[in-house]
Design brief:
Elements: E1 2-9, E2 23-32, E3 39-48, H1 57-81, H2 94-111, H3 117-126, H4 129-134
Antiparallel strand pairs: 1-2, 2-3
């Protein structure tokens, strides 16, 4: 169980030597593990370019919480399913091209309705026509 509290201020706007700083915030998270009762408290500070009329405290909490969906939905999949961290391609634009191809594969599988990427990749490896169909190419 997690309780989040946020304190937001735009009083430092124009005072900070930080470009586009519209608001600063302090976010406190208190987490209780339900199975053990162990408590953990964490406080983080942040700066945002979003003005108070574009991001009130409720929206800032939501944006902070949703930030991890990118990590869990894309980067974790790239790290685990594609073993991206052990990739040896390092020269020129090779690493960027490979990351783009991995993102394309993940996006196509998600658009096709795959909830879990690893089994969908195995299914594509077993049937070589399946990736072509995902790309919209007809197979005979």
């Amino acid at each position: 169980m997690e309780i989040r509290r946020i304190w937001v201020s735009s009083e430092l706007q124009g005072y900070l030597d930080f470009p586009y700083a519209a608001q600063v915030f302090r976010l406190q998270r208190e987490t209780t593990r339900l199975n053990t009762g162990q408590l953990r408290s964490e406080t983080v500070h942040g700066v945002t370019s979003l003005s108070p009329d574009k991001a009130d405290p409720v929206r800032l909490l939501s944006l902070n919480r949703r930030h991890w969906t990118i990590e869990n939905g894309l980067h974790y999949v790239r790290d685990v399913s594609f073993d991206e961290d052990r990739c040896r391609i390092r020269k020129y634009a090779g690493a960027r091209v490979m990351a783009s191809l991995r993102n394309l594969a993940i996006s196509l599988l998600r658009l096709a309705g795959a909830v879990y990427i690893a089994p969908a990749l195995r299914a594509c490896a077993r049937d070589l026509r399946r990736p072509l169909r995902l790309l919209g190419l007809a197979c005979n």
